[in-house]
Write a structure and sequence with these properties.
The protein has 454 residues and is of the alpha/beta class. The protein folds into two domains: 188 residues, 3-Layer(aba) Sandwich (Rossmann fold), CATH 3.40.50; 217 residues, FAD/NAD(P)-binding domain. The protein is built from 19 helices and 19 strands. Strands 16-17-18-4-1-2-3-19 form an eight-stranded mixed sheet, sandwiched between helices. Strands 6-14-7-8-10-9 form a six-stranded parallel sheet. It has a three-stranded antiparallel sheet with strand order 11-12-13, with no helix packed on it. α1 packs across α16, α8 runs parallel beside α11 and α18 packs across α19. The longest helix is centred in the last third of the chain and has 19 residues. The protein is globular, with a radius of gyration of 23 Å. The mean pLDDT is 94. The protein binds NADP nicotinamide-adenine-dinucleotide phosphate.
């Protein structure tokens, strides 16, 4: 018998559970997938943009894994302060695999970053994804005021938020976006979205499929300044670039070459070689962003030119990357935002800690697409199964679910999650929409536990 806990039910957690089932020949294997939230699927539910239905449909694959009889989903189980400590968890399971992702966002570290109207893209994503930790009305005031928005960064998160800002509410109505967010988006007055990269097109991190979508938005025109692109040596000779980068450059060249003018509501401007140096204030809130113009330094980076450009905006979203957060009781490398590990084995003072593993972003940092988590999980599971004979000798306490309840936790089981799904379908029906996400803890727990928590 081998009893394993996987902490986190996003792609890395579910792929880890799946890998355990497929790679292991251990008889009596049991995998409990625990999550802080009452709902499974992590960033597939709370990070993938609502208009990316195809990526969202990955939930069906993750569901099939979680419905395997050897797997038990237990939501609403907090590991760390206010819940169960890692060392207690290790008393309940032969091994624990932490797949807790990278929950925080990186900051710019420039003046004005905390002005009202300046937010992280991850907060914006959480809001339109109905994450229960996001305030339901967090973006309403910004929306009602803002006519122009600046998105800082050139990764796929920047592209996601720039696209959502550039869509009309009618385009999002068929999705599961929460109703309050939809109302705020419908009332919003943003007409210009500027997405600004500090380097050039051949260093941008976004992927071509995501970039192309920006040129196919029904209500927004994308524009690129050819002079900015031309600063990039890769732009002038794309043949020397890796294929993925070359495709990005080709898409941007196409847009810079000019397009048939259309009657559109919004303009989406993609800017390059602009390094943010200050968020400007006007009337106590964001009034714009000051950028220093940059030029390539010849080795993939950029250097400042000492000339500046201000872009007026009432909403600024920084999309400059996620950051792992420490989990009390586990070692943490603050410089990389990851848990120190060797092929997934958690290292305490440089030595593998028996029974403790990591996979996903908390193991390797916030990079790659969802599928990158498969080989990452497989590597960790290979390490774990190599250690399994020794792990199986460790004594573990009785039934984990009972112990979790005795610790004061009230786990939401799989049937509770199915009740949440049903409640979301009913909510959508009452609003004349498809399934609509429940955006708050009380609503989720009322559905998942069958009662409103006290
Ligand atoms: P990312 O891909 O690392 O991009 C971060 C961007 O922020 C880069 O353009 C970076 O520029 C810029 N940046 C960092 N620090 C900056 C600063 N101080 N000032 C200005 N710009 C700065 O991160 P992400 O967009 O958060 O995405 C995280 C991961 O999730 C990625 O692997 C991404 O592909 C994935 N994801 C995928 C999808 C999808 O497949 N549809 C959607 C969302 C996210 P430099 O390159 O110059 O550092």
């Amino acid at each position: 018998m081998l009893r394993i806990a996987v902490v986190g039910s996003g792609p890395s957690g579910v792929y880890t559970a799946q890998s355990l089932l497929t790679q292991s020949a251990v008889p009596g294997l049991r995998v409990d997938v625990l999550d802080r939230l009452p709902c499974p699927y992590g960033l597939v539910r709370y990070g993938v943009a609502p208009d990316h239905e195809k990526i969202k449909s990955l939930q069906n694959n993750l569901r099939a894994v979680l419905e395997d009889e050897r797997i038990t989903f237990l939501g609403h189980v907090q590991i760390g302060p206010g819940g169960i400590a890692p060392e207690q968890l290790l008393g309940l399971y032969h091994a624990v695999v932490y797949c807790v992702g990278a929950a925080a966002d990186r900051r710019l570290g420039i003046p004005g970053e905390d002005l009202p109207g300046s937010c992280s893209a991850t907060d914006f994503v959480s809001w339109y994804s109905a994450h229960p930790d996001a305030e339901g009305n967090a973006f309403s005031p910004d929306w009602l005021d803002a006519r122009a928005a600046v998105v800082i960064g050139a990764g796929n998160v920047a592209v996601d938020v720039a696209r959502i800002l550039s869509r009309g509410a009618d385009e999002l109505r068929p999705t599961d976006v929460p109703h309050a967010a939809l109302d705020a988006l419908a009332a919003g007055r943003v007409r210009e979205v500027h997405m600004a990269a500090r380097r050039g097109p051949s260093q941008a991190k976004f992927t071509t499929k995501e970039l192309r979508e920006l040129g196919a938005l029904p209500g927004a025109e994308v524009s690129v300044d050819g002079a900015e692109l031309a600063l990039d040596p890769g732009y002038l000779d794309p043949s020397a670039l890796p294929a993925a980068v070359r495709r990005n450059v080709e898409v941007l060249r196409g847009w810079a070459g000019g397009r048939e003018p259309r009657e559109v509501e919004r303009l989406l401007r993609l800017r390059f070689f602009l390094r943010p140096v200050e968020i400007l204030e006007r009337d106590g809130r964001v009034g714009g962003v000051r950028f220093e113009r940059t030029v390539p330094d010849g080795s993939g980076g950029v250097r400042g030119t000492g000339t500046y450009e201000d872009i007026e905006a009432q909403l600024v979203l920084r999309a400059v990357g996620y950051l792992g957060v420490p989990l009390a009781g586990l070692p943490f490398d603050a410089s990389s935002g990851t848990v120190p590990n060797a092929a997934g084995r958690v290292l305490r003072d440089g030595v593998p800690s028996p029974g403790e593993y990591v996979a996903g972003w908390i193991k390797r940092g916030p990079t790659g697409v969802i599928g990158t988590n498969r080989p990452c999980a497989k590597e960790t599971v290979t390490s774990l199964l190599e250690d399994a004979p020794a792990l199986a000798l460790r004594p573990v306490q009785g039934e984990p679910l009972d112990s979790l309840r005795e610790s004061g936790l009230r786990p939401v089981e799989w049937r509770g999650w199915l009740d949440i799904e049903r409640a979301e379908a009913e909510l959508g029906q009452s609003l004349g929409r498809g399934s609509v996400k429940i955006p708050d803890w009380d609503g989720l727990l009322a559905a998942g536990l069958g009662q409103v928590p006290g």
